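Re: [ENG-882] Designed sequences occasionally contain unexpected residues at chain ends

Forwarding the minimal case from QA. Structure tokens:
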């Protein structure tokens, strides 16, 4: 009996160890590496998951989600305290106007009426964040960071601010629904909520 319990404990420890080891490795998504950690507002964030995301039914970006702790559901990810980061990398040339339109459309598809009505100014700012450029080139990086101390969202393209920080602590959880909302493509949502990490651990 004791031997069986010891074997089970060892198996569980090995499983845990492989999961932690997987999270300490970069994930390759269509040739884009997502490191296991990123730093936002002097806080170390861990990779929650990574996936591809589509525009007009074609792969357009590789996306990684980073938070202070791993969360396996949309609800717990949105409720997670502390800084957050969504990192997008263009997999092909993308019209900036199309990107802004897709972001807003997916928010409308996934957000509640109250969420939309209470964040009208924030959505307008999001829509205007990419008006200073005509397109994203393959390999361009967009980061969308939540900064809790300022209760604001910063959007950067290749490290440069794309617009003034968007104020409001209720906006970022809604923005996250673009990639992990209930009407998002299942594989994208599941990978960002940890399925990609489990796949890596199983290798």
């Amino acid at each position: 009996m004791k031997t069986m319990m010891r074997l089970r404990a060892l198996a569980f420890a090995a499983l845990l160890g492989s999961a932690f080891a997987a999270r300490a490795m970069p994930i390759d998504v269509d040739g884009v590496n997502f490191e296991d950690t990123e730093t936002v507002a002097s806080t170390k964030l861990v990779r929650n998951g990574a996936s591809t995301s589509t525009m007009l039914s074609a792969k357009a970006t590789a996306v990684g989600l980073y938070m202070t702790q791993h969360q396996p559901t949309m609800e717990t990810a949105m409720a997670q305290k502390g800084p957050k980061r969504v990192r997008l990398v263009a997999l092909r040339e993308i019209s900036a106007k199309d990107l802004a339109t897709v972001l807003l459309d997916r928010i409308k598809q996934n957000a509640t009426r109250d969420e939309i009505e209470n964040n009208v100014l924030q959505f307008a700012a999001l829509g205007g964040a990419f008006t200073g450029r005509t397109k994203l080139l393959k390999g361009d990086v967009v980061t969308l960071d939540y900064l809790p101390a300022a209760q604001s969202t910063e959007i950067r393209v290749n490290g440069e601010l794309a617009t003034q920080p968007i104020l409001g602590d209720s906006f970022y959880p809604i923005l996250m629904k673009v990639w992990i909302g209930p009407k998002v493509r299942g594989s994208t949502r599941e990978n960002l909520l940890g399925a990609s990490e489990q796949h890596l651990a199983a290798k």
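QA comment: On inspection the terminal residues look reasonable. Residues 144 and 155 are 5 Å apart (CA to CA). Proposing we downgrade this to a documentation issue.
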